[in-house]
Amino acid sequence: MSFKTLDDIGDLTGKTVLVREDLNVPMQDGVVSDDTRLRATVATLNELSDKGAKVLVLAHFGRPKGQPSEEFSLKKLAEPLSHVLGRPVSYIDWEGDKAAVAALAPGAIAVLENTRFFGGEEKNDPAVIERFASLGDIYVNDAFSAAHRAHASTEGLAHVLPAYAGRAMEAELKALQKALGEPERPVAAVVGGAKVSTKLDVLKHLVTKVDHLIIGGGMANTFLAARGVNVGKSLCEHDLTNTAEQILDNADKAGCTVHLPYDVVVSKEFAANPASLRTCNVHEVAEDEMILDVGPAAVEALGDALKTCRTLVWNGPMGAFETEPFDAATVALAKTAAALTKEGSLVSVAGGGDTVAALNHAGVAADFSYISTAGGAFLEWMEGKELPGVAALER
């Protein structure tokens, strides 16, 4: 994977840099409720500002569908971004933007209005690309989370301006390269979540790439059913058991060991600490019970498998971790992975919203080698798909 970074840019005196960032943050009552994505911009924006460039931030917010509106304006994010960066950030509307950009001092940072106020942004329209490009000399893509979209601001600009990866994008790409591009073997992947249908392409791709595939969450029930296990009233996609069987066959051919739970935590109701809670062998699940977590014996064996590995990719929880005690397997396995990472024997990369929440819940997110906050882009990368925003940087 070859791409230029900020180290390759050279003298920025008198230059204007268009930086694609992800400012699509959650807000409650007009206040940013999680500033993770804003904090991810700090290294790139402050470095470019320190080098004397005029820094113009390109980003989308919500789904305005090509229609300007107060609800989706990025004006409200200039102040929160300024707070995170520790320096002033101005806001520039698309009306009179050229004059406003010309008036900026070297080192100034400004947020341009929502890129999706242009209907052609999501169509990668050449006219919109040219419109954006007319404001700057250099393009920097720092938004991996939007790299799976071939939009004007995420892909098109890389073809008309000198293009570079920002610091967050650079860190992400290096981490992903270590995890699946050129990993140290053996490689393990943990794939959890509710449904097989949402991660079919991920599973099909991973069995050809990893040595150990650990399947948890509701999707494990579909694989157990494919193996002839009666999963009672557990969440299960019975119509996909043939597909699950095919994935298991492909794993066998590729020399990938698939780990399914052999003891499970079950209950007749999905509630916190229910009276009907019990742990049993997978072959002992009653008709009126549902599997809600992986059992302790299986988790211990999975931990032992991780100890033989050098690389781990994690996407999705092992059980219904939001409700106790069905968080036990996720927490225990996450703590094992974190401990192995801290001692230097494992490179661990995790991504996806539920995964980040689960690792934060386990209190170990800071101990993983890399945590990706990207959702769709991380999944498409796990599926082995080319990400347009990344491919454009490589060209």
TrEMBL record:
<dbReference type="GO" id="GO:0005524">
    <property type="term" value="F:ATP binding"/>
</dbReference>
<feature type="binding site">
    <location>
        <position position="37"/>
    </location>
    <ligand>
        <name>(2R)-3-phosphoglycerate</name>
    </ligand>
</feature>
<keyword id="KW-0808">Transferase</keyword>
<dbReference type="Pfam" id="PF00162">
    <property type="entry name" value="PGK"/>
</dbReference>
<keyword id="KW-0963">Cytoplasm</keyword>
<dbReference type="GO" id="GO:0006094">
    <property type="term" value="P:gluconeogenesis"/>
</dbReference>
<feature type="binding site">
    <location>
        <position position="37"/>
    </location>
    <ligand>
        <name>substrate</name>
    </ligand>
</feature>
<comment type="pathway">
    <text>Carbohydrate degradation; glycolysis; pyruvate from D-glyceraldehyde 3-phosphate: step 2/5.</text>
</comment>
<feature type="binding site">
    <location>
        <position position="322"/>
    </location>
    <ligand>
        <name>ATP</name>
    </ligand>
</feature>
<dbReference type="InterPro" id="IPR001576">
    <property type="entry name" value="Phosphoglycerate_kinase"/>
</dbReference>
<dbReference type="GO" id="GO:0005829">
    <property type="term" value="C:cytosol"/>
</dbReference>
<feature type="binding site">
    <location>
        <position position="149"/>
    </location>
    <ligand>
        <name>(2R)-3-phosphoglycerate</name>
    </ligand>
</feature>
<comment type="subunit">
    <text>Monomer.</text>
</comment>
<keyword id="KW-0324">Glycolysis</keyword>
<feature type="binding site">
    <location>
        <position position="116"/>
    </location>
    <ligand>
        <name>(2R)-3-phosphoglycerate</name>
    </ligand>
</feature>
<feature type="binding site">
    <location>
        <begin position="22"/>
        <end position="24"/>
    </location>
    <ligand>
        <name>substrate</name>
    </ligand>
</feature>
<feature type="binding site">
    <location>
        <begin position="60"/>
        <end position="63"/>
    </location>
    <ligand>
        <name>substrate</name>
    </ligand>
</feature>
<dbReference type="InterPro" id="IPR015824">
    <property type="entry name" value="Phosphoglycerate_kinase_N"/>
</dbReference>
<dbReference type="InterPro" id="IPR015911">
    <property type="entry name" value="Phosphoglycerate_kinase_CS"/>
</dbReference>
<comment type="similarity">
    <text>Belongs to the phosphoglycerate kinase family.</text>
</comment>
<feature type="binding site">
    <location>
        <position position="116"/>
    </location>
    <ligand>
        <name>substrate</name>
    </ligand>
</feature>
<dbReference type="GO" id="GO:0006096">
    <property type="term" value="P:glycolytic process"/>
</dbReference>
<protein>
    <recommendedName>
        <fullName>Phosphoglycerate kinase</fullName>
        <ecNumber>2.7.2.3</ecNumber>
    </recommendedName>
</protein>
<dbReference type="InterPro" id="IPR036043">
    <property type="entry name" value="Phosphoglycerate_kinase_sf"/>
</dbReference>
<feature type="binding site">
    <location>
        <position position="199"/>
    </location>
    <ligand>
        <name>ATP</name>
    </ligand>
</feature>
<keyword id="KW-0067">ATP-binding</keyword>
<dbReference type="GO" id="GO:0043531">
    <property type="term" value="F:ADP binding"/>
</dbReference>
<keyword id="KW-0547">Nucleotide-binding</keyword>
<feature type="binding site">
    <location>
        <begin position="352"/>
        <end position="355"/>
    </location>
    <ligand>
        <name>ATP</name>
    </ligand>
</feature>
<keyword id="KW-0418">Kinase</keyword>
<feature type="binding site">
    <location>
        <position position="149"/>
    </location>
    <ligand>
        <name>substrate</name>
    </ligand>
</feature>
<dbReference type="GO" id="GO:0004618">
    <property type="term" value="F:phosphoglycerate kinase activity"/>
</dbReference>
